[in-house]
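Appendix B, Record 12. Input sequence as logged:
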Amino acid sequence: MRRVAIVGGGMTPFAEHFDLGIKDLLPQAFRSALRSVDKGMERGDIEAAWFGEVTATDGFPSGILADSCGLLDVPVTRLENACATGNDAIRNASLAVGSGAFDVVLAVGADKVRDGSARQTFWEWMSGNRDMAWDFPLGLVAPANFALHVSRYLYETPATREHMAMIAVKNHRHALPNPKAQLRYEITVEQVLEAPIVVEPFGLLDCTPQSDGAAAVLLAAEEVVDRYTDRPVWVRGVGLGLDRVMHAHKKDMTTFPASVRAAKQAFGMAGLTPADVDVAEVHDCFTGVELIDYEDLGFCERGQAFRLVEAGDTCVGGRLPVNPSGGLKAKGHPPGATGVAQCVELFEQLRGEAANQVDEPRVGLAHNIGGPTAVSAVTILGRERD
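Logged structural output:
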């Protein structure tokens, strides 16, 4: 396999874009990625594209990306893999370049959740992404689904709702300097704990907002990287993990095995360990999920995630900053775009250009979990090629 690098990345603000459609958001993210390429890149340099999106009833066809971004002469592959879609788009694009099939490719993620342009309501989309034989008829939409895991996790470990609230406060604080974040305001632990309950143990301020947005990255083979930048960010490892869908079939509700499997693949490919990670963007669709992520990704021992929170280790300035962008919780979560946007953030972090810059990171990790808790994707990026 050839080495692969990200040479450009960009995204739209994540927000309630009632005045913009998918055909507006895609070219905005694409142009932002092109502008970020240090030595410039022409559309004609791009040989293929991968387009990830989740919420449209029948799927926005790949032609939407080709038409709106002027990429009619290249193959465009549309994919959907629940909330792991964005990182899976980057995984597929990276493997295509690494295989030698292409030298320069585009990976894009986008979604419209907040209005009718996706031709359905959010809850109609949710029903299409749940097991209709079991989960959805029981009311296991996303908050209830993840609440089953987090409730059991709180029961079996020393973690509390206060620790969850501390994560919400951290991620809102991280979002303040990020101009692309949706919820740029501070909150307190008390506000989180006193917020209306959505489903135990999640209050309103434990939950990610619904968002519209798009993000894009440009990837190049090692043989051509120098044409575009002297500061590439290398794709060190990618992984995709799966687990059973039905909760009755899950052996342990305090972990997401899909995340464990994806991380094992990505770290193995990268030749790295969790101790090598300097900054991470993880899937915090609900605050308690971030606690479980710390353990599944190997950042701490089982049942010890609360200690990272109490010590401030995962704050910017701490030992392992997590979600310096604000995370899904405050940056926002258009599902197809989220994983790509995480890698845009890490691209900027590793180049020292992020809005909420951490201190001299060399290795970054992006992680998503979804489907419901049945699929996870992990991408590891680094300043060094190997």
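The first strand starts at residue 4 and ends at 11.
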